[in-house]
Specification:
It contains 16 helices and 22 strands.
Amino acid sequence: MQATVREVAEWSGAIGIQGLSANDNILLSGVSTDTRKIKPGQLFVPLKGERFDGHDYIQIAKDAGASAALWESAVPLPELDIPLILVEDTLEALQALAVGYLNGGLAVKVVAVTGSNGKTTTKDLVTSVLSTRYLVHKTEGNFNNHIGLPLTILSAPKDTELLVLEMGMSGQGEISLLSSLAKPDIAIITNIGESHLLQLGSRRNIARAKLEITEGLKLSGTLVYYGDEPLIAEELAALNLDKPIQLVTFGENPDCDWIARYIRVSTEGTQFTVSGESESQYELPVPGRHNAVNALAAVAVGRLLGLTFEEIGEGLKATKLTGMRIERSVASNGAVVLNDAYNASPTSVKAAIHLVAELSGYRRKWIVLGDMLELGADEVALHGEIGRYLTDSKADNVLLYGPLSRQTYEEAKPNYSEGRVRYFEEKEALADYLVGELASDDLVLVKASRGMRLEEVVKKLQKGAGE
């Protein structure tokens, strides 16, 4: 964001400015909520949390180079020579500032992405495709909530042509807020899984929460959604939208507008054919049948924004995914390691297991699973379901870690011979066992919810024994 103090005051709905003379109008360059990351010339936004108050760090922010700050009017003013833009609530002002910059400082189209699984991968695929022609700015890391999304908008350079924004949630109403802030031209729903069952109670409620993305969708905007999931269509029909929008579907169902066919998977990537307006062949540098389906959303968006099939193909082939999404690396002994340890739900774990089953050319295939979190009252049953899904035709050995994964262990044991399914109380013991057993021509996939931190097993494999 490049904006003057007075522009920031206007966009954020300020009730006044303290410490700015009538003839002065400082130019601000960027926004930060973290004093450890402030750069000279930025606007500091002091947010409040349960155990902290950013207002307490205004001196540090000024010393780090902040040129101005938002300031809640109810908080006593500090004795500092720095312009303070007075607002009633700094979080709401940050969100309003992002809307103001989006409407007044940028001339962009917005693509918003949500879904239970695959939204980060889809965001990366869409960005790579659109970058073949446009200047694109996307959500980085996990900046996909009520704070991260405004900061993503505010970090967009002024010459940005397209914003690709990821929208995360844990409960009802959150996507509605994000959609109302971003006002997308195109919205994508990747799928409806089991993530956040703890908060929402059912997959149908999850579908309703994801469809909140339509609330901010511009008039005559487009919703691109996973057509193989009937819940989306059912709940979409029940919405009775009061504005015209275009609907585009993707999936493997022949009734979809964009269809993935003839999918071929290796550890190096995925090849597939897309049927839609015409039939084209594409290649991804990431393995997984589910990623071919995610790529359909990028194909659809590319065509909506005028890209040729050749440009779309170039973009898909050049995609670089955010870390720990089936991230390929090599163990210290040469074995292939697929790190998918950023998140997990029953749907995504089954997709990962299916990926391993499809891959060939390895002496043995190992699957390492940790707990899937936030699944609610059915969490034990859902872990057991994964155990029943595991068979020796899909993977040769299964290693499990975490209290909930004990149920996966109990259900998987009957599908394997003695010793090929093992449960570990300690993550370090699992890693040490795997390092000792893994052969140079083996394959291992590691997957769990983020809270289980199974990337530590991957790091141990990369370092090897004795490290």
